[in-house]
What does this fold into?
Amino acid sequence: MKKMKRHEFGRTGLRVSRFGLGCMRFPSEEKEAVGIVRRAIEAGVNYLDTAYVYGNSEVVTGKALRDGYRKRVVLATKSPLWSIDAPADFEKYLDEELARLRTDYIDIYLLHNLNPGNWDKVRRLDGFTFLDKMVAKGKILHKGFSLHNTLAAFKEIITAFAWDMTQIQLNILDEYNQVGIEGLRYAAARNVPVVIMEPLRGGFLAAQAPPAVAALTEAFPVRRSLVEWCFRWLYDMPEVSVILSGVSSPAQLEDNLSIFSSEEAHSMTAEERELIRRIQAEFGRQKSVGCTACGYCLPCPSGVDIPEVFKLYNSYQLVKPNPTDVFMYKNTLMPTGAAADRCTNCGKCAELCPQGLATPELLSEAHREFLQARMP
Ligand code: SF4
Ligand code: SF4
It folds into this structure.
């Protein structure tokens, strides 16, 4: 396996690997998660991304970075804007994150999931002054933001402050969705490096591809997995600085390391680009809900397991009629009170969904289809 290359990261002076380890989807076994982080670092990955709201991710990452690993990485984490109600809260949460991560400084500190609603809050509570003060104190080295929102919101936010980086969602299905390619180029033209999240739409792209997509990749002269094609499409673009992959197992890490060992911009042929266009078209024919299973909408006050309902629903759409999905919905989710029939339409989940999904309506549609589906 080739040595992983390092690339300049905008104006920060940092040099980073194209493969960034997303620490959001660690396995539940702590020892295994620590092993994944350390193996990734040994293999040349030097960008780690976590957040206050990713369960116990910061704590586990902090443990993994003991024994000298901390100084080998660029560590990024995020401010939990949801919980900030007063200017002093910003530093209070940052101090808690420093303790969780067992470090004195964060290389890149992001305001998490900016959108027009909390953007007003950041300005009202003087979030910019907080970031500048923390740089002066040495608690953070560089300032950034992540966003799942419109291109217009992105352009407003990125031009309003001297950001050192930004993090956006991009994958073959979101080329023209959310910030999209246009936003990527907008940031890169301002020398603001872009970190990509959800390169596989929370695993959806790999796990729930229609059979026609598998037929396309299998018929192509160069045999690569759909996961590899998705990553290649991203690292082909020189504007993409880091691609986060939320690794959940050692095997997945090894697969990712192998894929990124040949990462290179401008490396796709015309035939390969045409293959991606055909894959995009096949997904476009598919009826599915664009849920990334991020869990931001949970817990639902009525107990609905929203991402699980959508996962079953998307799987059901792939191979209709798929009795397993119908069985799981009717005999597992419904009896345990986690199905969509418990939804009271309070709207809380739709407000929190970074993908902008009309969740109550989609849940209702999923429930109706599952009830109408016949089981053998
Ligand atoms: S709209 Fe329904 S699913 Fe969403 S949070 Fe409210 S009760 Fe739960
Ligand atoms: S419905 Fe939205 S917020 Fe909930 S898990 Fe899916 S993508 Fe995340």
Observations:
- The CA atoms of residues 345 and 360 lie 6 Å apart.
- The chain has two domains: 7-284, 306-372.
- The radius of gyration is 21 Å.
